[in-house]
Design brief:
By secondary structure, the chain is of the alpha/beta class. It folds into two domains: 70 residues, 3-Layer(aba) Sandwich (Rossmann fold); 85 residues, Dimethylsulfoxide Reductase, domain 2, CATH 3.40.228. It contains nine helices and seven strands. The strands form three sheets. The protein has a three-stranded parallel sheet with strand order 5-6-7. The protein has a two-stranded antiparallel sheet with strand order 1-2. The protein starts with a strand and ends in a 6-residue tail after the last helix.
């Protein structure tokens, strides 16, 4: 798709893959000529770390050293918060977060978190396994995730403030609203 109107108008037109690639090629060359290759930053998301080598090589060919991954807005802030609150920065990979007793819990709280998408194995599956073993699952999330559907109790975002203490009985009876 290519923007057909002004930014923000929501007007688009369908274009071919060849036209899309030609447009990208033209714009990258235009930016390099006008501002230099350092004006380009390559960014990846959704934990596609396996593509880092390809992206690095692409950046090398473009002449830009600027690359970022979703870690800059996801893992880095989480690690900093963990360091500030519990004294260590946490794990580098989801597998490192799991030890022998991480799921040895009677109650699991997911607050606006969907490990099925972010850390499917072992974290995401481990939560389902622990729920099957009888653990209570509390979900506070406006999205109808699989965890929300299987929650022992939970609430949608409209009662997030009340759920902050998790002691408000009105939140615990909203399972059907998830």
């Amino acid at each position: 798709m290519k923007r057909a109107g002004e930014r923000g108008e929501g007007k688009w037109q369908r274009i071919t893959w060849d036209e899309a690639l030609d447009t990208i090629d033209f714009r990258l060359k235009e930016i390099k000529e006008k501002h230099g290759p350092e004006a380009i930053c390559l960014a990846t998301g959704a934990a596609v770390y396996s593509l880092s080598g390809i992206m690095g090589y692409f950046g090398y060919l473009l002449g830009t050293p600027n690359m970022m991954t979703n870690g800059y807005i996801c893992f880095n802030p989480a690690g900093t918060a963990a360091w500030a609150t519990i004294g260590h920065g946490g794990a580098l990979l989801a597998q490192e977060m799991v030890n022998d007793d991480i799921f040895d819990s009677n109650c699991i709280l997911l607050w606006a978190s969907n490990p099925q998408n972010t850390h499917p194995y072992p974290v995401g599956e481990g939560i389902f396994t622990q729920k099957q073993k009888g653990a209570k699952l509390i979900v506070v999330d406006p999205r109808p995730t699989e965890y929300a559907k299987k929650a022992t109790c939970g609430c949608k975002s409209d009662c997030n403030r009340r759920c902050a203490c998790l002691g408000d009985a009105s939140c615990h009876h909203q399972r059907g609203a998830l």
